[in-house]
Amino acid sequence: MILKVVGIIIVSAVLITTLRRDLPSVSLLLALVAMIVVFETGREALTSVVSLGQDIAKLSSVSGKQLGSILKVLAVTVLTKLTRDFCKDAGCAGLAGMTEIVGNALAIIAAAPLLEELLKFISSI
Question: What is the pLDDT of residues 19-36, one digit of tens each?
Fold first, then answer.
């Protein structure tokens, strides 16, 4: 799978770089399509990671709620980074910055249940 993903990325990068000067809108669209194709190609690996996390949670004292919060934070972080990088490639630095700010806020919101449990644990000591 990694060779397939690397191949898609290299071919896409070459095409995007080649088209960027003469057809910037096409290169931007190609970058978006490449991101989607790479994500879809790696979806099986992402599913395996989630499954592994669930298995680890079963073996440890991590609750489903805690694991859910962790996975939400990871998802928000990854999607924020992808969106921010796409905005930067599109030449929208301001939008990229705002994406990062909102993504950080959403990650904090997603982590709130973990923070609550941590504070409860600390106050019980």
Answer: 888 998 898 899 889 988
